[in-house]
């Protein structure tokens, strides 16, 4: 070993002509990372430091919302690349230039948007939340990390954990729904899946919590605009998933495009430094969103790029995503004394720390394996199928029309989603390929092809006004035992910059449902979408409705096996389906009305069409009474709650039990109820399982004020599970 170290010392000294250079930082040993960072930082010029704070794109950028940046020749001193190639060889070639052809040999960190899979595409995150299966999501994230690492990546801009309550906003598809606790739990599962045990291990990648913070309240669901978030809501709703992610060790954070009460989050010292760094002690770094530093000029808080750069760095954004504001302006701002060198040093320290934690100095290169070993392995597809199946939500099943009964031999399959293998991958589908994706049609053929007479008609396109296909669709429906209608959204109708003024499906699709409903045959609606849909009219015309979301690579067999009864659906909504677009915002944990029971819209039914937590099964799960370890607890005591759930139906199944707490009287008005715990278990038919929730008063019964201070007040509380509700008292 000593011989190797001597070699390293000699190599470094000869490779660096100008002056003596200490060799601590490149020693391939376990000397503390901080010592290495200090050693390296002490040798860096201002230009080298600023280059570390810069990310550029490598490869053609396929995000249609960010086309203003062309591919650039890579400068090897660059801190990071948004890497749009799938080649580990290219990556290693670029990395070799950085490590061997630059003065200090600082490796590049390669990042990319792996949101729900890299080449094996899993269901969109909103769908994953509806599975209530965090361990399966962790598995899927670990697979995504491995496929990405083997493609040359060290870092993903994921998970997106913006609590979303306005489905007009297209990015509801990218997060984990309307509840802070659900977003927190799936954030932790995803971070753990990506980062594994140790960031320096092979096949692990750094996570990035985004879009910090409050972006999902972008007014009216229109993307990129201001978000009016009260300070109490900021702490009660939008910050908790980020705090959970930081506690789970997320290496990086991305600041968003929105503002908080007029101060853009990319220039917001309170959130970026006071909360994230001073209170939560985050020791990684913050990257801006694409151009969100230069956007400070558009938002009217910076007169030019230089002032934008100044505001962002002083607020606590360490890396500039692709707009070159830092590289153009920071050296001058330091030389003019406006930005202290300590601020630059702290930013670079954070970036270097993540690079050291990733092991990039010791292992700057990734293994190059055959594509067949890299992607879409059978075990990956199995996880994708399970997660797709567990995320699908049976919204309606009138007269148990599903699963399709053996006697139903003639099955009509109609609609534009049936043979599609593009839109069912959803937005942000990584490097997924449609020809790797099993269509719903293929799934149906595999499951039913030998036992039923399957007939297909397109019926209509996703939109437009061509009704010429209706006639044939009606014909095959009239001669069928059951009509399966495969409808929904194109992939670019949700995701970034995909806001919609209406969440209803295009009229042509609704007309097709009406035509087929009039045949009198049982109609099953299979909906693939990136958001909740307006179903107030379709609900009356369908006997059964399944929301399959955008299920990814293995959605076809997942759906077909649910339709055949081989898989018992277990998904439950993590986001509310309002009656109509006009009813938005409509989420379960709204604060209580001053006049309960009135004040609702007069022209639609009260309450949502399908509420948070709604999801049917083919079996009957019967909930017993909630039992409590005590009637009264002190603030420093735990309360143990249990409930027995019996499977009294004819199918084995999985059941997610959701535990809600209600605090009817407090110093501030509290939400009607709040989800505080959930757990999903398999219950065989005829058997029962006990579910337990251990209540920690400060964690589960307190509320937070507008600066994050927690209050725990004695008084009456209720615990709710399903239709069961039990009272207990918190005493001083
Ligand atoms: C986009 C998105 C962000 C993404 C980034 C890089 O504009 O807002 O979620 O990670 O740019 O693609």
In short:
The chain is α/β, with parallel strands linked by helices and 732 residues long. 29% of the residues lie in helices and 18% in strands. The N and C termini lie far apart (62 Å).
CATH class of the largest domain: Alpha Beta
Radius of gyration: 27 Å
Major beta-sheet overview: 6 strands, mixed
Bound molecule kinds, no repeats: alpha-D-glucopyranose
Helical/strand content category: alpha/beta
Number of domains: 3
How many beta strands in the DSSP annotation?
27
Shape-level CATH architecture of the largest domain: Alpha-Beta Barrel
Oligomeric organization of the protein chains: single chain
Bin the strand percentage: 15-25%
- What is the rounded distance between the termini? 62 Å
Detail the poorly predicted runs: 1-21
Overall shape = globular
Describe this structure in words.
The chain has about 725 residues and is α/β, with parallel strands linked by helices. It folds into three domains: about 45-355, TIM Barrel, CATH 3.20.20; about 380-585, Glycoside hydrolase family 3 C-terminal domain (Rossmann fold), CATH 3.40.50; about 620-730, Immunoglobulins (Immunoglobulin-like, Sandwich), CATH 2.60.40. Helix content is about 30%, strand content about 20%. The protein contains 22 helices and 27 strands. The strands form seven sheets. It has a six-stranded mixed β-sheet, sandwiched between helices. The protein is globular and about 75 Å long. The N and C termini lie far apart (about 60 Å). The structure holds alpha-D-glucopyranose. Alpha-D-glucopyranose binds next to loops. The site of alpha-D-glucopyranose has 9 residues, from loops.
